[in-house]
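Marked as duplicate of an earlier ticket. Keeping the data here for the record.
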Amino acid sequence: MSERMEVDAHPQVALVTGATSGIGKAVALKLAEDGFNVVLHGRDQARGAAAVEAIEKAGAGARAGGHGGHGRFVAADLSVAADVERLAAEAGRVDVLVNNAGFGWFGATADLAPDTFDALFATNVRAAYYLVAALAPGMVERGTGNIINLGSMAGQIGLDGSAAYSATKAALAALTRAWAVEFSPGGVRVNTIAPGPVVTAAVPEIVERLGRTTLLNRPAQADEIADVIAFLVSPKAGYITGAMIPVDGGRGAV
């Protein structure tokens, strides 16, 4: 079955990790707008309920015109392996997986405690690995699916104080290439999107400063990242797999 036929055959399900704020929430809203039923992951029940409410509110009007999806929330701590397994089980059939959840630590290499280092890799890399391990085989069995890994410009260029965080994002890009080799012959497209600085609630002064280092002289809005992801999981991007797509205002070209 072609990807286009599969899209038309049933309401597709997208699992977006870290979907209660920032880029993840923007992605969840955009995919719901495009007709996906979205499983939103996060750790905070209240923020999860608010995100689902936003999707349902937006979707009610859209569905009147024949479009718009639904949302539901699943809480999980992605640094805990058992929670990752449970999230995959509760999500059920997934057609699009967006590995967005993660956190950053920035500072001198000598100041990073081993437990924080381990948590970085558990949340940013190991969780994505085992969600793919749980969900990609089903995509292959159906002959269609999309996996998007949220990398970063930090995984492509050197940034002072970001050694461990950058390593997690470079790991996701490497996993993308390997997973494309493993799963794309079975109809599953796997890509990394590497944003530059993005306006979120976290450390706005740092984001603005980094934004001024880009060729566009500004940080991105979360919706600009979500639009690229929505394109990559659509049939319009049907010949793109194993790619790392920079959305960094040209920062990586400098």
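See parent ticket for discussion. The beta strands are 13-16, 37-42, 71-75, 96-99, 145-150, 188-195, 198-199, 220-221, 244-247.
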